[in-house]
Amino acid sequence: MPAGILADGRWAPRRHPTTTLHRIEAELVVSVIRRARDPGYVLIGPSERVLIRDPGGGKGAVEAIPKYEQDTVTQLLTSGHLTVGGTHHVTYTGREGPARAVLVTKTARTLVDRWAALRPLNGHSPRPS
User: Fold this and answer.
1) Domain boundaries, the chain
2) Residues near 115 by Cβ (< 8 Å), separated by ≥ 6?
3) What would the CATH number be for the domain defined by 19-115?
């Protein structure tokens, strides 16, 4: 049977296999940009490892984030949606040292606000985050 034709002869639209993947990627980007605003990311060391500020850990405390989130921050830095700011003093795993702040550009803030205002085409509300 040709693709898109059901057993009873009716036509059924095919779902593109990456539709959900693109939605997940967009949700990840929005989540990363929001987290870059609050609590904020920092880059440490020559490899510029991405860490997130830990508001409950005291002044300057940072903690590790998953690799996929680090990769997303790096991609957003490369694309210009995030930028590198000034140097701050942080504490990570009992060590203290300098880290550079990651800042959110106005373009990225506008993008997130615009995406938040969109209504889904299927008429269903997105799951709460």
Assistant:
1) 19-115
2) 26, 30
3) 1.10.10
Element (H, E) at 88: strand 82-92
Q: 98-123, pLDDT tens digit by residue?
A: 999 999 999 999 988 888 887 666 65
Task: Report which DSSP code applies to 45.
Answer: T
68-83: average pLDDT: 93
Q: Is 60 exposed, middle or buried (CB count within 10 Å of its CB: 0-12, 13-18, 19+)?
A: middle
pLDDT at 90 over 70: yes
Residue at token pair 């989540």:
31
Check: CB of residue 41 under 8 Å from CB of residue 53.
Answer: yes
SS3 98: strand
How does pLDDT run across 37-54, given as a tens digit for each residue?
999 999 999 999 999 999
Enter the tokens of residue 85.
């700011």
Assess contact for 90 and 44: CB atoms under 8 A: yes
Place of tokens 């995030």: 82
